[in-house]
Amino acid sequence: MKATEAQSAPQPAQERKREPAATLPQAAPTRSWVALALIGLLCAMLGFALAVQLRTVDSDQGLAGAREEDLARILADLESRQDRLRSEISEQQDLLEQLGSGEDSAAAAVEEARRQAEALAILNGTIPAVGPGLTITIRDPDSQVDSAILLDAVQELRGAGAETMQVAGVRIGVSSALVGEAGDVRIDGIEVSAPYEIVAIGESQTLATAMQIPGGVEDKVIQAGGSIDIVAADEVTVDALRPLDEPEYAEPAPDPDD
Amino acid sequence: MKGIRTGPLIPMLGLAAGVAAGVWLDPSVPAPLQPYLPIAVVAALDAVFGGVRARLDGIFDAKVFVVSFISNVVVAALIVFLGDQLGVGAQLSTAVIVVLGIRIFGNVAAIRRHLFRA
User: Fold this and answer.
1) How confident is the model at residue A10 (pLDDT cuts 50, 70, 90)?
2) How many structural domains comprise chain A?
3) Where on the phi/psi map is residue A128: left (φ > 0), alpha (ψ -120 to 50), or beta?
4) Residue at B108 is within a domain
5) Which of A2, A14, A31 to mutate to test binding with chain B, by most B CBs within 10 Å of its CB?
6) A232 assigned to some structural domain
7) Chain A residues close to B70, C-beta within 8 Å
8) Collapsed DSSP state (helix, strand, coil) of residue A137
9) Which of A13, A82, B27, B59 has the fewest CB atoms within 10 Å, counting from its CB?
10) Contacts of residue B86 in chain A, CB cutoff 8 Å?
11) Domain holding A150: CATH number?
12) Is residue A133 part of a domain?
């Protein structure tokens, strides 16, 4: 606005008319390249400062430079918010207690715990499981199928959603290890030999597709001179068990609510 | 009001480049400068709107724009700095914002009259 006020004075006649501007070539001298560059530079600085300020406000780092009064106001805001949240917490806790003391909720909790225990037991392989799935038989007449191919099969089956499985009578769990060269494959330290029978429970169509992808398990077995049979069934049984891995060092963290 | 001397091109380009640089570099504002940056930005905005209005009035002058831009920013920052020293920084910065805000409103109203004839 200094612009508007001050400007009419020094050069009033020159530009008062707002008619087509192209008729004002004599206006050019006032605008040197320096002026243009300065205008551009100032605008750039404005944009820069604007962006930086927006970022600063956004990231809430501004407190370090804030004034005492502002800090006091912010503190008051936060305190009232804290009070609100506190009362909300106590309301919720009351609600929680009401729910927790309900009698039928105990039975529901037990039922839920039992379901969870079963699910975990199936995942860990401590109980037998039945369900739809595949029985895969890998024959290896040339002793060329090594642990890598079997591991591939296990991983592909898992990736395709197999819920639990056993390989050559050994249940596969979270810590199962498949090692060894062809003809001397060990699963969890147990020696197994061809033909390897893999039983997996899951969506059998998906599992079968996972075995048959180009370059996948089936191709590798055939390359190794073996053959593979994939039989889907509405009910297969994974009955091999594995001992529960008792954690030696880890123990449950205390419940933060207690 | 078309391209009397500058098109809006150079200021626009400058603004865009500045915003891009600010976003890209993402520098953190030094703590002592933090109270002044928003004031300086508002003061600069005031100068820019004044410049746009002057251009629409056909009385834009580059020198006046540059000088008013810089002096706006410096004076605004100085007032706030002085206020901080006197212990009334928050009030004075509010005052500066109010004054600059009124001026920006006035300028925008003038620009609006030019552009929409209303």
Assistant:
1) very low
2) 1
3) beta
4) yes
5) A2
6) yes
7) 42
8) strand
9) A13
10) none
11) 3.30.70.1880
12) yes
Looking at the complex, report in whole angstroms how far the Cα of residue B52 sits from the nearest Cα belonging to chain A: 9
Comparing alpha-carbon positions, the chain A residue that sits nearest to B91 is A69
The pair of three-digit structure tokens given for residue A146, joined into one six-digit string: 């090594």
Whether the predicted interface score ipTM is above 0.90: no
Q: Would residue B49 count as lying in a domain?
A: yes
Q: Are B110 and B53 in contact (CB under 8 A)?
A: yes
Over residues A77-116, the pLDDT tens digits come to 999 999 999 999 999 998 888 877 776 777 888 888 898 8
Domain count along chain B = 1
- Bridge partners, A136 (sequence order): A198, A230
Residue A16 lies in a domain: no
Q: What is the pLDDT of residues A248-258, one digit of tens each?
A: 888 888 877 66
- Chain B residues touching A39 at Cβ < 8 A: 6, 10-11, 14, 62, 65-66
Burial of residue A84, with CB atoms counted within 10 A of its CB: 0-12 exposed, 13-18 middle, 19 or more buried: exposed
**Full domain range(s) for residue A232:** 120-238
State the sign of the Cα–Cα–Cα–Cα dihedral A150, A155, A161, A165. positive
What was the pLDDT predicted at A65?
A: 64
Within a 13 Å sphere around the CA of B100, how many CA atoms are in the beta-carbon half?
A: 25
Q: Answer whether residue A13 is part of any domain.
A: no
Q: Which amino acid belongs to residue A9? A: A
- Whole domain around residue B48: which residue ranges? 33-116
A146: alpha, beta or left, given left = phi > 0 and alpha = psi -120 to 50?
beta
A53:B37 CB<8 A? yes
E-strand stretches of A93-169? 129-139, 164-167
